[in-house]
Structures are given as C-alpha cells and as structure tokens.
Amino acid sequence: MDCCQETHRRETHGRVLREHFGIAPESEQCVIALAGNPNVGKSTVFNALTGLHQHTGNWPGKTVDNAQGTFTYRQKPFLLVDLPGTYSILAHTVEEQIARDFICFGEPNATIVVLDATCLERNLNLALQVMEITPNVIVCINLMDEARKKDITINFSVLEKELGVPVVATAARKGEGLNTLRETLYQVSIGARKSNPRQLVYSPSIEEAVQGLLPNIQRLVDHKLNPRWVALRLLDGDKAFIESINRYLDFQPNWKLQEEAAAL
Ligand SMILES: Nc1nc2c(ncn2[C@@H]2O[C@H](COP(=O)(O)OP(=O)(O)OP(=O)(O)O)[C@@H](O)[C@H]2O)c(=O)[nH]1
Ligand SMILES: [Mg+2]
User: Fold this and answer.
1) Closest C-alpha to 31, from 71, 85, 86
2) At the N or C end, where does the chain have fewer CB atoms within 10 A?
3) Left if phi > 0, otherwise alpha if psi is -120 to 50, otherwise beta: which for 200?
4) Per the database record, which ranges form the FeoB-type G domain (predicted)?
5) What is this structure's pTM?
6) Residues contacting ligand 1 via CB (< 6 Å)
7) Residue 34: which of 121, 171, 127, 122 has the closest Cα?
8) Which atom of ligand 1 is nearest to the CA of 142?
C-alpha cells in the first residue's frame, strides 16, 4: 500500500467509525472491542478497565456510542467499546450484527473476547469466529473464581498454544488478572506480541471453493477486510453481509461475486 492509499484508508476508517458507530478516537488512541457471550462479565471488565459504571443490562440500540470508555496504560491511550453479548457473530440477530459489523468494519486495533471459564467449550465458538475475521484477538477467560469453586482447572499454556492468541485469566468482579489483561492489551497494541490465530479448516469442497473466490475478493476488498472471511460469508449466501460491505465501504453493489459463489 502506498502512502496515498494509506491516507485514504485511514480517512475511510475514521469516517466509518464516526458515522456508523459514533466513535471519534484521537490519533494515538487504540480502539479495543470487548466481545463475548451474554452475561460473561464484559461490562464488569469494561468498568474495571475504564473506571466507568457502564449499565450492565441489554444493549440499547443500533449504535455503540454509549458503550465507550477510555483509559491510559503506560502512557498509551485506549478507547474501549463494550459490545452487546452474542453467542455468535453470524448476524442472525441485531446484537450479532452490531458486534460483527464493529469487529469487521470498525477495525478495532484489538478485540478482547471474554469467555466464561465454567463453560469454555460453548464460549470458544465465538472466539474462533472472531479469530476468522482478525488476528488481533485476546482471549480473556473470566469468572475464574466460579471455575475454582467447581474444581474446573484450565491449562492456559496449552490453550494459548492451541488458539495461537494471548489468553488471560480473570475474575473481573474481584479485580483479579486485570493487570495482566492491561499489559497484554498494551503488548498487542504496540505490535510487541504477534498472534497466529488458529483458523478453522472446512471440508475439502468448501476449501476449494474459497480458493476459487479469493483472487476476485482480494481485488475487491483490498486491505479492508479479511478475504477468506468474505469468501466464507459469500459461500454462506449471507446477503446481509454483502449489503453491509456496500454500506460501510462504499462499494457499488457487486452481485457478480455472489453469483460466482452461488455457482460453486
Ligand atoms: N463471580 C463472578 N461474577 C462476575 C465476574 N465478572 C462478572 N461477574 C458478574 O456476572 C454478572 C454479569 O456481568 P456483566 O458484566 O453484566 O456481564 P456482560 O457480559 O456484560 O452481560 P451482557 O452485557 O448482558 O451480555 C454480574 O452479576 C457480574 O457482577 C467474575 O469474575 N466472577
Ligand atoms: Mg454488558
């Protein structure tokens, strides 16, 4: 990408954040999304990091501007966005669409996926989905105090190795693990800690179809979206996603790609 393209990309990104999500980060500020299943402690983590008292009820509408807070760590300013709780980000509900669109088109510098330590298996589904969109993921395993009460033990180093992203244990209500979370966020945000997120491998026919679509998608979405993720959504026949691409990235409707995907 040359510097004109980079400037254009930044301007488009700034406009998307402002116009679609009501967020206007200052130039040095790192934007961090907080995602997770309902009731896993996202807002508790949000409040602990920002010192705010975010309402811990349902997401109030289609914007995220009332769920943002700031904090500074090691002189680095962060803007944290508390996303609505979702089991998935395949956009079957308004909440899923908000979370998916923010992670995809808001392009946060990093996304913390908060998981419930007492039901990891179910919660990991969302983490794997987010890891398909972006490599900048931190997995925060919360409710560790509850897990301890139930004699659940988690091998964090194995999990971190398997997932390929940083994994942090917290009991946010007690303030446990939050310093490690801040430090990990900092390391990821300054690029000192690189991730290599595990990617789900689908059946050979789907993988072949993805490979067939990638060249055209790469041309279309450029650096703006993860082409593999777009290919998977097209193969899924996700029309709402194509509409989101056109809405956020100002593309002319391009149904040809979808026709191509449908023919595969
Ligand atoms: N025991 C324990 N309770 C916690 C912890 N973190 C959060 N909670 C409690 O879990 C409940 C849900 O926390 P929230 O922070 O509202 O969860 P959320 O993920 O924001 O929920 P939604 O926004 O509704 O999806 C609250 O009663 C919190 O006090 C923790 O680490 N340990
Ligand atoms: Mg909440």
Assistant:
1) 71
2) N
3) beta
4) 29-191
5) 0.90
6) 36, 38-44, 56, 85, 142-143, 145-146, 171-173
7) 127
8) 31
